[in-house]
């Protein structure tokens, strides 16, 4: 594992740096430098750092589950988007409209879910603002004091939020498969699905599952007895899938 913590300019940019680091067989590369000084005090708090590690370790778990061929396709898709968008609104995942987008949407949905979900298990009483202020609608703590900040970062993810360049990544979908709570009206997500477990979600992330649609189909195939399956199409459609 390699953790980089500075603002050093790398010749050739981060795509070139990634290629160089790949040559020395690093298992994981985590960049935790701060682009926005306004969030610096939050980004080095324990919940933020652990959430980042949980996110990245979730990618590693998908490598183990889906295999090296799937994971190579996923990494190459993200590197391609980073090459096309080295900075700005669509860095590092792209616009959501390319041939790379389906596998990115699936891989990042899993990682965002696990990053926030696991951090919430540890830090569900923290009072610092969680998530990306542009990507998540942040309600008052009093509205969701029972689930913690990380939990409502997922629960309040809004697939149609105009200023979120990555709203096409269904970051709240997997929590919606699991929970049995009332969906906030502001998200416009139709969530009448519940009862799925992390183990069931992970089991569906197989080597031949590279899109959100394929993930839904495998989830239904493997779990035909979930009593809320008749609502699963509405849930996925709320996220644009």
Number of helices: 10
Quaternary status: single chain
Strand order of the largest sheet: 1-2
**Domains, number:** 1
What is the percent of helical residues? 40-55%
Q: What structural category do the secondary elements indicate? A: mainly alpha
Number of strands: 2
The run of helices and strands is EHEHHHHHHHHH
Average per-residue pLDDT, rounded, comes to 78
Form type: globular
**Model regions low in confidence, pLDDT < 50 over at least 5 residues:** 1-11, 125-150
Radius of gyration: 18 Å
Euclidean distance between termini CA atoms: 34 Å
Largest sheet: 2 strands, parallel
Strand content: under 5%
How would you explain this protein's 3D organization?
- The chain is an all-alpha fold and 241 residues long.
- The protein is built from 10 helices and 2 strands, in the order E-H-E-H-H-H-H-H-H-H-H-H.
- It has one domain.
- It has helices spanning 13-22, 40-43, 46-66, 68-84, 101-123, 148-155, 173-178, 198-203, 212-222, 232-238; strands spanning 2-4, 29-31.
- The chain has a two-stranded parallel ribbon.
- The longest helix is centred in the middle third of the chain and has 23 residues, at 101-123.
């Amino acid at each position: 594992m390699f953790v980089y913590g500075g603002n050093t300019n790398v010749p050739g940019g981060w795509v070139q740096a990634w290629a160089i680091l790949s040559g020395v067989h690093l298992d994981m590369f985590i960049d935790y430098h701060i682009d926005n000084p306004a969030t610096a005090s939050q980004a080095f708090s324990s919940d933020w750092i652990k959430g980042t590690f949980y996110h990245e370790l979730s990618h590693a778990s998908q490598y183990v589950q889906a295999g090296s061929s799937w994971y190579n396709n996923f990494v190459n898709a993200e590197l391609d988007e980073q090459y096309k968008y080295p900075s700005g609104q669509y860095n590092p995942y792209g616009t959501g409209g390319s041939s790379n987008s389906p596998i990115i949407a699936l891989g990042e949905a899993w990682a965002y879910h696990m990053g926030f979900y696991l951090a919430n298990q540890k830090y569900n009483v923290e009072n610092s603002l969680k998530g990306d202020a542009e990507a998540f609608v942040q309600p008052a703590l009093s509205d969701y004091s029972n689930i913690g900040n990380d939990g409502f970062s997922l629960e309040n993810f809004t697939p149609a939020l105009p200023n979120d360049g990555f709203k096409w990544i269904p970051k709240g979908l997997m929590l919606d498969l699991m929970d049995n709570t009332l969906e906030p009206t502001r998200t416009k997500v139709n969530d009448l699905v519940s009862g799925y477990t992390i183990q069931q979600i992970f089991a569906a992330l197989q080597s031949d599952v590279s899109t959100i649609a394929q993930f839904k189909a495998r989830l239904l195939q493997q779990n035909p007895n979930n009593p809320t399956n008749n609502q699963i199409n509405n849930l996925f459609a709320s996220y644009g899938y």
